[in-house]
UniProtKB/TrEMBL annotation, chains A, B:
Residue sites binding FMN per the record: 56, 93, 143, 147, 217-218
Keywords, alphabetical: Flavoprotein, FMN, Monooxygenase, Oxidoreductase
Entry's family note: Belongs to the NtaA/SnaA/DszA monooxygenase family.
Listed name of the protein: FMN-dependent oxidoreductase (Nitrilotriacetate monooxygenase family)
InterPro entries referenced in this protein's UniProt entry, alphabetically: Diverse_substr_monoxygenases (IPR051260), Luciferase-like_dom (IPR011251), Luciferase-like_sf (IPR036661), NTA_MOA (IPR016215)
Amino acid sequence: MTRQLHLNAFLMTVGHHEAAWRLPESDPFAHLDLQHYVRLARIAERGRLDSLFLADTPALWNSIGRRPSGGLEPTVLLTALATATEHIGLIATASTSYNEPYNLARRFASLDHISGGRAGWNVVTTAGPDAARNFNLDDQPAHRDRYERAAEFIEVSRKLWDSWEDDAALGDKANGVWGDDSKIHPAGHEGRYFRVAGALNVPRPPQGHPLLVQAGSSADGRELAARYADAVFTAQQTLADAQAFYADLKRRALAEGRDPDTIKILPGIVPAIGSTEAEALALEEELDRLIRPEYALRQLATTLRVDPADLHLDRELPDDLPAEDEIEAAKSRYTLIVELARRERLTVRQLIGRLGGGRGHRTFAGTPEQVADAIQHWFDNGAADGFNIMAPVLPAGLELFVEHVVPLLQRRGLFRTEYTTGTLREHYGLPRPAAVLAGA
Amino acid sequence: MTRQLHLNAFLMTVGHHEAAWRLPESDPFAHLDLQHYVRLARIAERGRLDSLFLADTPALWNSIGRRPSGGLEPTVLLTALATATEHIGLIATASTSYNEPYNLARRFASLDHISGGRAGWNVVTTAGPDAARNFNLDDQPAHRDRYERAAEFIEVSRKLWDSWEDDAALGDKANGVWGDDSKIHPAGHEGRYFRVAGALNVPRPPQGHPLLVQAGSSADGRELAARYADAVFTAQQTLADAQAFYADLKRRALAEGRDPDTIKILPGIVPAIGSTEAEALALEEELDRLIRPEYALRQLATTLRVDPADLHLDRELPDDLPAEDEIEAAKSRYTLIVELARRERLTVRQLIGRLGGGRGHRTFAGTPEQVADAIQHWFDNGAADGFNIMAPVLPAGLELFVEHVVPLLQRRGLFRTEYTTGTLREHYGLPRPAAVLAGA
């Protein structure tokens, strides 16, 4: 069988472009309305996409002026979407720094049961001090500490998911024995960050383990992905960078003793789709014109760790920016932004436009044919196993992608025309993991 | 208008009776099947009940042999049920000892948005060492500590729910200002148990605050209820005890400066319903006969803090049991069980039968007329504002209650015949709380 693409719909309020909410057709409160997400999920499912995905951080942005703010907690929202869909995978972001493994492993196991094996967890360590201050801390833990905790968090979660053998539940009415206690294996975990005694209070999930996604591209993030991730979401601006990232991650997975084909790499793409290239570019320009630069400038200054007064809209970035290893949060995104600005000699205003579309993800304006070509080009050239589709405007952009780009990819034999698999792992061509039993 | 009952459907697997799963009609795996709960929720809604409710503890019971074990996490499950219902309130238990306020306040706010104002939170401190050992501890914190933490947890949650003024979101497209930052009030909480800086990342819930339920009946539990609870679930075996509890709690609420009518007291009742009294008693006997006493004996010994070898099935409880103030978990339930056994001079086997039906809640076998009379008698005599309906077998017992008992209560003018209110608070006749704004 021909190698096929994996496509994930990254959903965000009324679109990834920060000004999408200002378009006449956008409902600025849609992100609080379940029916908006139901509609998006059904569009993605109509397109036979592998999965949909929600980002998250447990803190409110600095300003609610800029764009639709606050939202529904992802594990809860995806459970509602599980009841409105039948096939599509459901991936929620959740933080290892600000959760307890017992609670989170349990919610993902519950979502996996409710959805019939369609749950995925995007493992994040949550950068920045704002979240830390909501959880009894003064500032975020160091980058390395966050990633060590994340690795241990995943280890504990696996022990919990595996704490019931698949056939532990008997339902033996005649003898009055509901389950076989000998098939329960308490986690008995004692580590640096966590002590977790118990078996989980949910039977083993249909998928064994929910699909694990990782999206950090720093060295620590890649190492975590190479050890644990089934899929990686990544921001890559150029083919060369994407190829280097792809090769590096496959190599790291191999070094961890894994089949490199079991880690799927999905760069993001923000496609502005028009029936002509000119129409696509006009949409992108209209959106960029609606950005209020003062908000974006403030955020850019925070990301770059500079004083907002040192950034001038019509000049390039200052020369004296910190080196990546001085950055404690979103390290690789920092480097990507600085390199993008330097490579294309962008003014701050132009950089803000580019970031407003996809926050560092690759923006691409074109016809359906051009978008399909762009996707296939990276897919055929060792840069991607699939894509994270980040429509600039929702639902319109996802609808255009599903109705006009997906059929082209299907005609080229690059994408499924029907769902032929049941679980999210199966959609991604991944096996159900065997249980590692504590004490066995 | 005549004072009316509030009725809550307490759902549990295939029934509250521990042997319900052994009946021929029971699916022993129904508690992992969303459709089972959807069916129950729709039956309860057909009966115009105020709410449904799920208990919870973040640990697996000692043995999975006894009865259906493991289950779906309640906030996640209720979100799925929110999409399958339109009117009924949705109350989930969640622990203040093993959660962080930011995460939990956010999930309840999300559920309140998704359900259009139908979320309720049963605040528990979680007794017992098993849960503690899943959260980095060797044993549960002391009773008093757990309740102090619970009070602070609620205070933080309220600050978070109130951190957005109701009209903070503007959606002003013309000026490109989505929300008014001056209407965001960060919690700024610094307490003994929690430091939480931030504003919540969800706008204020439709109900202002989700309905707060409390179910602890110890002195600490009553005090917490008197300060914060909108509704109280309680286990009461006799009219006299229920009257004393009711009067005490209303008095305590008054002492806290509250209108006693704004705290609704709902004792549990486990109704075995038959078309004749003999048929109802036969159902109860059939269920009791299906109990395997060795499991129940072990749990009773744990509750009573005695060696299982000191309990003899055909004798009464030993004389030298600990006093309530030596008990650190489920204090009032301990006393209730000991008093029940002593008052009725029950053997251990008989006591196990009584507890197998409702774990200390009042069991009642009779015709629909007798059940309606029992409910009205307590309601008319200062013992209850409503009832927590704990069907011994599900869905059958809830169906019988809705089809045969509810119409009697309606005919007597004691219960609504249609939903005339929208939110859970409104169903319970409670106002939407005003926001207390940090820094205002």
